[in-house]
Design brief:
The longest helix has 13 residues, at 16-28. This protein is of the alpha/beta class. A 4-stranded parallel sheet has the order 1-2-3-4. It has 4 helices and 4 strands. The protein has one domain (2-89). The chain has helices at residues 16-28, 41-45, 60-69, 77-89, and strands at residues 2-4, 34-37, 51-54, 72-75. It is globular. It binds zinc ion (ZN). Residues 36, 53-54 line the site of zinc ion (ZN).
Length: 95
């Protein structure tokens, strides 16, 4: 199951306790959970998800923690580039 965990800037889409309950319910049925977490990677790690998709805000410490826990990462490098330019240029890409 893939769950979108990004909400408004600085917030998760659902309370972390609800995401944790979703993860536990999916795991109890023998499946894994991928988190669509562009900006909420660190927070979502604590819910027990099996992988982080995108993960634009993950840092080295997060990645080490993920490796220790066996959590996968599916980075989206092309979108990361566009997102970082969006943040500094207000959606205008400079060439
Ligand atoms: Zn996604």
């Amino acid at each position: 199951m893939k769950v979108i965990t990004d909400g408004q800037p600085g917030e998760t889409a659902y309370p972390l306790v609800v995401i944790r309950q979703m993860v536990d319910a999916v795991h109890a049925r023998g499946f894994r959970v991928a988190a669509h977490a562009e900006r909420t990677g660190r927070q979502i790690l604590e819910t027990g998800v099996d992988s982080i998709e995108h993960g634009f805000t993950l840092d080295e410490q997060d990645l080490r923690l993920m490796a220790d826990r066996g959590v996968g990462w599916s980075p989206t490098t092309t979108c990361s580039c566009a997102t970082s330019r969006k943040r500094t240029d207000g959606w205008r890409l400079r060439t």
